[in-house]
Amino acid sequence: MQTQTMTNDSQPIFWRDPQFPHIDLRYIADGHQVRYIPHSHEQWSIGVILKGQSSFLCGDRLHQVAEGDLVIMNAQEVHCCNPAPESAWSYYMMHIDCHWLAQRLFEAGIQDEAIWEPTLQDVIKDSALSEIMRNVCDLLLSDTSTNEKSVALNRWLTQLFEHIKQLPREFNERNAPPTLAKVAFYLIEHGDLDDPIDKVAARFGFSNSYLTRQFKRYYQTTPHAFRINRRIQLSQIALKNGVPIAEVANQFGFSDQAHFQRAFKERVAATPKQYRTPPCHH
User: What is the pLDDT of residues 72-90, one digit of tens each?
Assistant: First the structure.
């Protein structure tokens, strides 16, 4: 049984399948009015732009991207990609579990160990890889057998990462200082807690203002926005598991459903209801 949330062209389609628990796929046919605020995902993500052009901010790196480009976001990396004014905007976005992907690349002989290493490219301009991803995504949304989907997906990932291995580093990782990274890890692990940020800062020996400055420098967002983003990540997991929306909003510290709806849509470009709509059966 697979989940394929069908909507009109201006709303996203989400594809999920229990046979592929490590993959989430999103398709937007007409997203020219979609606007995201800076956010991040729990998974490694890659998208293919089908129509339009955009400024793509990933970390502190700004790119101009257009139809046929592949865009890449590492897990927990803050990014934002909104279409240019008057531009069409259509894309596929695939979110892939990092642990599964590392194991897959190890088994394919692309990596020496089954340990995930963040990629060091934001954008790939390769028409052949772009076309393959588009075809794989079309296939996943179709009634094709699970085996055919699996073969096509694995073949594409192998080709993609063999290509990535040959690319020069597009940027150097800028690792946060260890104590700051501990704060980020604390906010990830305790995203549902509502302790004030100034108390979190004091817990790790920072003033509130210093913590905020350092967070903006290394994570491109404030500690508060970082925690809200983590709550949205956790709420996505809960919604996929069928937890009622009101319960999710309460569980993850949102003051009411309206607050939850607003924060969710700013980061997912869909309402919680659209995201968790019961599956269509094929």
Answer: 999 999 998 878 777 788 9
**In sequence order, what are the residues at sequence separation of 6 or more whose Cβ sits closer than 8 angstroms to the Cβ of residue 220?**
38, 59, 60, 78
Q: How far is CA 264 from CA 68, 201, 235, in A?
A: 28, 26, 9
The answer to whether 81 and 57 have CB atoms below 8 angstroms apart is yes
Is the pLDDT reported for residue 278 higher than 70? no
Q: Nearest Cα to 63, choosing from 170, 169, 164?
A: 170
282 pLDDT band, cuts 50/70/90, is: very low
Q: Give the highest mean pLDDT range of 9-18, 153-162, 239-248.
A: 153-162
Given phi > 0 = left and psi -120 to 50 = alpha, else beta, which region is 59? left
Cα dist. 74→53, 136, 212 in Å?
21, 21, 22
Which amino acid is located at 239 in the chain? L
Yes or no: say if 215 and 223 are a contact pair by the CB < 8 Å rule. Answer: yes
Compute how many other C-beta atoms are within 10 angstroms of the C-beta atom of residue 251. Answer: 15
What pLDDT was estimated at residue 7? Answer: 47
Do 80 and 37 contact (CB within 8 A), yes or no? yes
More confident residue, 10 or 178: 178
Q: How many residues does the chain have?
A: 282
Angle between helix axes 98-107 and 146-166 (nearest 10 degrees) is: 80
User: How much is the CA Rg of the chain, to the nearest whole Å?
Assistant: 19
Taken in order 61, 213, 37, 248, the sign of the CA dihedral is: positive
- d(CA 86, CA 166) in angstroms, rounded, equals 36
Cα distance between residue 159 and residue 187, in whole Å: 36
Is the distance from CB of 272 to CB of 261 less than 8 angstroms?
yes
At residue 75, the pLDDT reads 94
